[in-house]
Structures are given as structure tokens and as C-alpha cells.
Amino acid sequence: MPATPCVLSRLTYPMLVLSILMWSSNFIVGRALGGSIGPFTLAFARWMLALLCLLPFALPRLRQSWPLVRAQWRVLLMLGLTGIALTNTLLYIALRHTPATNAVVLNSLTPVLVLVLGAVLSRQRLTRKQLAGMLLALGGALVIVLRGNWHALLDFHLGIGDVGVLGAGLCWACYTVGLRKLKPGIPAVLQMTILFAIGVVLLLPFAGYEWYRGQSLPAAGTGTLLALIYLGVFPSILAFLMYNRAIAEIGSARAASFLYLMPAFGALLSILLLGEAVYAYHVLGLATIFAGIAVSALPDGVYRRFLFEVGRKAA
After folding, report:
1. HEC profile for 1-14?
2. 302: burial class by Cβ within 10 Å (0-12, 13-18, 19+)?
3. 218-251 as b/e: b if 16+ CB within 10 A
4. Which of 116, 210, 219, 248 has a C-alpha 20 to 30 A away from that of 153?
5. Any residues with CB less than 8 A from the CB of 139 and at least 6 apart, and which?
6. Mind listing the pLDDT tens digit for each residue in 157-199?
7. CA 180 remoteness from chain centre
8. Cα 282 to the center of its chain, rounded Å
9. pTM of the full predicted structure?
10. In Å, how far are 17, 174, 244 from 78, measured between CA atoms?
């Protein structure tokens, strides 16, 4: 039986956490493949696999939903361009030109861009609770990527790759805010299939140029195929469906605060998969990120009572 709206509401935050975990793994798998596959080819292969997986489920729904799809083609085109064609491609390109620390620090600014764009374009009011949670989570992300050493900020330089990461964050902010512009009615599977198809069409000429230049796929070994299948299914299909559903439930600003989990999950995956050691700053940063997300998710009444109690005890 299909899940009821009540059940889906309870699963909103777990779905957000899982989607961020999958996108964090995308950095590791993408970086592993990046040395042998061009960035446009990697992005094209990822979205093409995702598209092929969804087509059998989406096509039967297309005829019934076509009037609504046609009426919103401009919004769908913008979402496919920013969220599918540009975001990950820019990240794949940027990671060839910037250190991982710079990339993760700049990627942590994406929720800030979402809040700013939401306030400017959608007139979403920024509350003190959201700002407090954002600052807490950003502080936790910085603790992890700077390894607890704030003096590392003095060595932070903005290069071409860093500009690419910022561009990717801006594209993702446009995608997140733009999702609220879509009118309800298009089935989730059909919506993602259309967005993937737009991304594939837009990426094809650039991937073709890489093939022409000799940056084609390497010999299709088992490891490479499994990695591409993973990218095409988990960070692409499942993560996007869960993230889009969460935005519909709680809004873009609150959902974007969970993006601060990405550097935390990146560190945890490096520990588990690459054998890196666990340090105190991992624990401190992760705890601070969860505290920031919890503050953002608190009901307004609970947040006001919390501030009152903190102020009373401080006095």
C-alpha cells in the first residue's frame, strides 16, 4: 500500500539525512572516477543511467500529466539546467583545480545562498531561529573542514576551482528555491525523469566534445560499472526524490539547513572507507551541526521558551 501523508511527514527528516549521506558519497565516488573520466562525460553517464532507470515508470504517467508539464516547461527547464546539468558538473570540474578543504568550506555556504535567494526571489522571511541554526551548523562544518584549527582560515585562497564550487552552490540554491515554484500535480517519478532528460540533453554536446578530444570512458571494468550504477541510482534517483519530497513538506530554507551535514558525512565516510582516524574535532563539529539543524527545526513556541529559559538562567 502507498505511504500515507502522515507517514511521509514522519519520514521527512530521515529522508533528508539519507539524501545528504548519498550526496556526500557522490564526492568520494566522483573523485575516484574523475582521474579517468572527463567531468562532462561523468555527469552525462550518471544522469543517463538514472534516466534509463526511471523511464519505464514515468512514461505511463506522461500522457495524463502532459497539460501540467507543458504549462510549467519554463520552470522545469530552469530546474533541469541548474540542479541536473550544472551543479554536479561544476563540482566535478572544480575538484580538479582546488583543494578538498577549500571545496568543502565553500560548499558549506550553499544553505546561506538558499536562504538569501529564498528571501529575495520568494520573499521567504528569515527568522531568528533559522539564522541561529544556520550559524551553528556553519560553525560545525568549519570545525570539521578546518580540523579544529581556526588559523587555517588565514591560508584560505580563492582560485578558479573555488569559483566553480561557488557557482555550483549558487546553481543548487536556484534549484532548491525553484522547486517551490512548481505547482503540485506532476508525479514525483515523472518530474525527476523530465529533469534528468533535460540534463542529459544539455550535457550531451559537452560530453561529445570530450569524446572527440579523447576523454571518453575508460575500459568498462567491473569497478567502474558498479561505481556508475551507484551514482545513477542512489545519489541521483533516491536522493533527489527524497530531497524534493522534503522541500514540499517543510520548505526550502529548513531543508537546506541539512546540507551542512555534507562535510560531516564526508569526514565520516573518509574514516570508514579510507581508514582515517577519528579526532575530537569530528565529534565536536558533528554535534554542533546537529544542534544547528535541531534549532532550525524547532517549533517557534518551543524555540521562544528555550530562549527564555537560557536568558533566565544567564541572569
Report:
1. CCCCHHHHHHCHHH
2. exposed
3. eeeeeebeebbebbbbbbbbebbbbbbbbbbbbb
4. 116
5. 288, 292
6. 667 777 888 899 899 889 988 888 888 889 989 999 999 999 9
7. 16
8. 21
9. 0.77
10. 26, 9, 15
